[in-house]
Write the structure tokens for this entry.
Amino acid sequence: MGNIYFDICSIPLFLIILFVCYSRRMTKGNANHLFISLALISLITAVADLCIEIPQGTLPMSEASYVFCTISTYIYLIMRNATNVVLLLFLLHLTQTSFLIRNKVVKVLFSLPYSIIIILLILNPFFHNVFVVSAETGYSRGPLMLLLYIFALFYGITGFVYSIFCRRYLPLRKWLSLLSIYVLAYAAVFIQFFRPKALLEMFFTAVGEMLVMLAVMRPEERMDSEVAMLSWASYQWDLNNILRSHEHVQIIVIQLMNARETRNYLGDQKYNEYLSKIADGIRSVRWKHPHRAELYLERPGTIYLITESDDTLTEEEVNHLLVSVSEDVRKEVGMGVRSETRICLIRCPEDLNNAEDIVSLGHKFPKIENREKTVVMAGDVVTSKYLTVEMHAEGILDRAMRENRIEMYYQPIYDVRSGRFRSAEALVRIIDLEYGLISPGVFIPAAEAQGLIIPLGDVISEQVFRFVSEHDIDALGLDYIEMNLSVAQCMDTTLPEKFRRLQEKYGVDPGKINLEITETIYGNISGVMLDNINELVRMGYTFALDDYGTGYSSIQRINRLPLKLIKIDKTVLDEITTENGRTILESTMRMMQKTGKQLVVEGAETEEVVEALKEMGCDYIQGFYFSKPLPTGEFIRFIEDKNR
Ligand code: C2E
Ligand code: MG
Ligand code: MG
């Protein structure tokens, strides 16, 4: 009898692995399934190994022990060889390269050795050429056992060589632990070859699997465990591996447009339940290759589904899927939630073959012009200029900053009382060599995402100060230039210092610059902002509140800040045609004027609107009716002409 203590020790180790998998909810997703199978099969192998050894302790064996030992040997050989196969499959899944064995010929080649092993074992009771168990002498190998070893080696060596080759698909720590499974297994086989009674094999396997569980199967890294979907980081990682391996897949991006509101409405816990239900609904669709339908979640509410490329659904099928998912969920959550969904289907690499573009399209596709459409086929839109610019906003901004392609345009502002243009708003533009004129609506969010908003703000203020110093504002009839400040700039503790330096450098009187801050910053006005604003006012700058009517202004907040101007957003103007809208606008104006603040209305496009605004007693009007924002030279000519 061999040394069974190692086998005995391996059993609790496999049980711990299985327990940990369940308790850490590592039960969903393909890699988890395969890993659990691996641990389970290994456990059965270890138990079978033990069941072969124990009856051999007393020779000759009784009839019952003999049967028990023989059956255990069959189970052991079937399971032991299966671990090699499952381990290789696990490796392929972990590296996102399982498509390599999808080809029919490869599939046959892959399963052939194991099939032969099974056939040999089926024939063994008749020919006794793989192994024999005799009641007198116990277990002994037959001549064909060597063949079994050779076939087993096929999976072992393939797996080992492949895992070495897979270095680029895995972080070092994970790669080393995967290799360790093979190294430990070979070490055990080697030792057992010389000391057949050592029986180290299953113990070493358990140690290897334990290492993999600790270093590779880290659900906190891979999973968003609250909802049993893979995490956003895993999506990016897997996407890169897919592209690197040139696999053909389809990515379905499902954006829950009102995710934030739904979460606020349901609360975190219920919201997670709601997401899990949606995930279950998607999983329940009859995918042709269900093993590949992996779900990833980017919080708060974008779900990514990666499927085989021939699992392509028609637009109709996708719509159907959505309706059923959202309706079922609504019923189950039992609350008045209605998910507003937008879907994008990306064939990869046909539509896009670059991870950055795919991620970017997943974020931005709902912005494309045709907002009515629920389902967007990436192939139809990737060539649209709007989307291309949106998708490459970050690169465009980066290039513009490096090549000094940031330019300020100026939009004249009309003073109703004097009938002249008394000020102008500086509005930033990028002049891109490839895409032409690009508006801030596109690249300001990109600047925020890249942490470039402060450097961009610095370029803007530099240009505005230079403009004011280079042109005789007074002579043009302009009182001041309005400059937009982003929230990030307002939070920059060095802002007053920067302005002081610019003032000195360009010899500009602060009274010639009016700073626009947006209403939304009131939502999170902090000490730094207030200090900055007060300091800048002390230095002589004035402030305007931009986009009034779109954010969270309250009388108290407006009162607390030293504002000279209030700029009413153009969305408010859209209501001017209705009786109510007009009344609201009129009373807002009266209220502001009574508190000593001047009023600018933005977005006046027609004569009628301008006349109506004049009648209501508006102080300043800004809009395309007078002029669009103009490049410096044109702006100067415009003002010289009109203010003559
Ligand atoms: P904003 O500060 O409210 O600027 C007014 C926007 O309304 C400008 O868009 C202007 O072109 C547009 N506009 C003016 N009159 C009309 C009109 O009659 N009809 C229509 N449809 N639009 C009109 P723009 O230049 O695209 O800027 C958009 C936003 O980007 C700005 O809104 C501002 O929040 C931001 N932004 C622009 N330049 C800067 C800047 O230099 N710094 C910062 N931080 N933000 C800027
Ligand atoms: Mg503005
Ligand atoms: Mg505005």
About this structure: The mean pLDDT is 86. The two ends are 111 Å apart (CA to CA).
